[in-house]
Design brief:
It is a single chain. By secondary structure, the protein is an alpha/beta fold. The chain folds into 3 domains: 3-246, 2-enoyl-CoA Hydratase, Chain A, domain 1 (Alpha-Beta Complex), CATH 3.90.226.10; 270-430 and 469-497, 2-enoyl-CoA Hydratase, Chain A, domain 1, CATH 3.90.226.10; 433-466, no CATH class. It contains 21 helices and 17 strands. It has helices spanning 3-18, 23-31, 37-44, 104-120, 139-155, 172-179, 197-204, 210-214, 216-223, 233-246, 270-273, 284-291, 336-351, 369-374, 376-389, 404-409, 433-440, 442-447, 451-466, 470-474, 487-497, and strands at residues 51-53, 76-83, 86-93, 124-128, 161-165, 168-170, 182-186, 191-193, 228-230, 298-300, 308-315, 318-325, 356-362, 394-403, 419-422, 427-429, 480-481. The strands form 3 sheets. Strands 10, 11, 12, 13, 14, 15, 16 and 17 form an 8-stranded mixed sheet that branches. It has a 7-stranded mixed sheet with strand order 1-2-3-4-5-7-9, sandwiched between helices. Strand 14 (394-403), helix 16 (404-409) and strand 15 form a beta-alpha-beta unit. Helix 5 (139-155) packs parallel to helix 6 (172-179), helix 13 runs parallel beside helix 15 and helix 17 crosses helix 19. It binds hexanoyl-coenzyme A (HXC).
């Protein structure tokens, strides 16, 4: 063949490969409101930055007439590109080709791009749209999943791993995302389950549709398996781009710095956000926005365990992770889910050199039979573990209540916070004044001529003695009691002087967190 013929041959081969599962399958994909695998990739990456590899890989199935079938690229598109100039490795399963099912070569392609990401030390983004293990390939498909799970685990804490669920993901297709750092879902498009409705009906006789079993909302609000929820694929891609800007390429780097911006002080006047009455709720995200550069805050797991808020912002141009009790929901108590959510986020920040700011306002851990039986001891301990283990700069600010176990768990000095500040509105005590007075002054209240009057008197006495930041400050558990409007300056200073913090724990293979 002449060069011209060879060039023409390559073009023809490319054309065929780029058709994916063919026009009918693509039409079906579009009819369900979904983009194709390549459209998704180019929508996430910078224009013209995508380089595709392994487009000519062929599947290895031999049984059930598979050897007669052509599956372009074996149903997965892989390559490299950039997002706002940052390099990433990426793959997208192509549902138009055998339902994006995972065969041996499909898995090999994913493993290869994951290995590439580990070598280049850049984030890996996986777009999942798959019926799970390719049934015709039997144990080779299962082996493929095992190889991916192993790599997910090895890459954990080394490079950021982002999973995007953009279709029905069943069986093995959900476990790789579960091992990654952030899972993105889109309303009505994403579905995740280990066993689908058909199997559930056969085995248990229960009827449920895909959406109710494992739709985007289910995982963003109830199970907590998804960390970002979007109304459309376009919105989801913007969320991914934003997330990538906040995190470093790998665990040996810090996140990129941006030009510092002041918070929008008109909308977020810090001193007016916290009510003087400690029982009145407020939205702690307004406090975060009053501190953050440009009042911008990327919340993680926004719809799950809303009694705690976690997410990324920048202060003076640098990324920080915020963990904050949310008085708007359940008074900001810690429970099983909120402890899990916060602990995981703390570990993420620590792995990727992101300093943490913890805002405290909570009445403690949630009491109740449900919580005890659900394992609040074990789940709550995850937060103690995560904060104690974290060695990045840790800055804690008590805004209002810090009672009991909640005081300790929310990154107190005792868990090795580096800087602990409190507002004059802070109340740091074993429990709230009402509960405390009822217990320690029980006899005086019971024997008083007017018990209610005596109760109020004792509550007041307790408040004056303990419901303030000064007892903790007297023991050095609070480094400085600061005015609310000094908060950003104190954080900027702490981040500056803490920049070179180095802390090493005892030598060990790894700890045993209360998973
Ligand atoms: C082979 C598959 C497939 C699979 C789908 N297809 N899943 N081929 N292996 N696992 C094929 C279909 O045969 C069909 O091919 C095409 O993909 C599109 O599928 P449809 O069923 O037409 O699409 P839809 O109606 O949208 O339903 C999507 C679906 C459904 C919900 C994902 O296909 C489904 O339930 N698939 C099986 C899911 C499953 O049980 N997977 C195995 C999991 S076991 P044609 O040629 O007709 O277009 C597993 C073990 C790993 O993953 C465990 C690790 C821990």
């Amino acid at each position: 063949m002449s060069l011209r013929q060879k060039t023409h041959d390559l073009k023809k081969r490319m054309q065929v490969a780029l058709q994916g599962g063919g026009s009918k399958a693509v039409e079906k994909q579009k009819a369900t409101g979904k983009l194709t695998a390549r459209e998704r990739i180019v929508s996430i990456l910078d224009p013209d930055s995508f380089h595709e590899y392994d487009i000519f890989v062929q599947h290895a199935g031999k049984d059930f007439d598979m050897d007669k079938k052509y599956l372009p690229g074996d149903g997965v598109v892989t390559g490299t590109g950039t997002i706002n100039g940052y390099p990433v490795c990426i793959y997208a399963q192509d549902f138009t080709v055998a339902g994006g099912s995972l065969g041996y070569m499909h898995a090999k392609k994913i493993c290869k791009i994951m290995d590439h990401a580990m070598k280049l030390k850049v984030p890996i983004i996986g777009i999942n749209d798959s019926g799970g293990a390719r049934i015709q390939e039997g144990v080779n498909a299962l082996a493929g999943y095992g190889d991916i799970f192993y790599r997910n685990t090895q890459a954990s804490g080394v490079i950021p791993q982002i999973s995007v669920i953009l279709g029905p993901c069943a069986g093995g297709a959900v476990y790789s995302p579960a091992l990654t750092d952030f899972v993105f879902v889109v309303d009505k498009i994403s579905k995740m389950f280990i066993t689908g409705p058909e199997v559930i009906k056969t085995v248990l006789g229960e009827e449920i549709n895909q959406e109710e079993l494992g739709g985007a909302r289910v995982h963003a609000e109830i199970s907590g398996n998804a960390h970002f929820f979007a109304e459309s694929e376009a919105e989801c891609f913007e969320q991914i781009k934003s997330l990538v800007s906040y995190v470093p390429w790998n665990n040996a780097k810090t996140a990129e710095s941006f030009p510092p911006k002041s918070p929008k002080s008109r909308e977020y006047r810090i001193s007016s956000i916290i009510p003087t009455d400690p029982s009145i709720p407020y939205d702690v995200r307004d406090i975060i926005r009053s501190i953050a550069d440009g009042s911008e805050f990327l919340e993680v797991s926004e719809l799950f365990a809303k009694n705690i808020v976690v997410g990324f912002a920048r202060i003076n141009g640098d990324t920080v992770g915020f963990v904050a009790n949310q008085p708007l929901y359940m008074a900001g108590v810690l429970d099983c889910d909120s402890s899990d959510k916060a602990a995981r986020f703390v570990r993420y920040c620590d792995s990727f050199n992101i300093p943490m700011v913890t805002l405290v306002d909570l009445p403690g851990y949630l009491p109740g039979v449900d919580q005890e039986h659900a394992g609040v001891i074990r789940h709550g301990a995850k937060l103690l573990y995560a904060f104690s283990e974290a060695t990045v700069p840790k800055i804690t600010i008590t805004l209002r209540k810090a009672y009991g176990g909640g005081y300790i768990a929310m990154c107190s000095h005792h868990l090795k916070a580096d800087f602990v500040f409190a507002w004059p509105t802070a109340e740091i005590a074993v429990m709230g004044p009402e509960g405390a007075a009822n217990i320690i002054f029980r006899n005086e209240i019971m024997n008083a001529e007017n018990p209610e009057e005596m109760r109020q008197e004792k509550i007041q006495e307790y408040k004056e003695k303990f419901a303030n930041p000064y007892v903790a400050a007297a023991y050095g558990y609070v480094d400085a009691v600061i005015q609310p409007n000094e908060t950003r300056d104190y954080i900027i200073h702490a981040l500056k002087v803490g920049k070179n913090k180095q802390e090493k724990g005892p030598d060990k293979k790894h700890g045993i967190p209360p998973f």
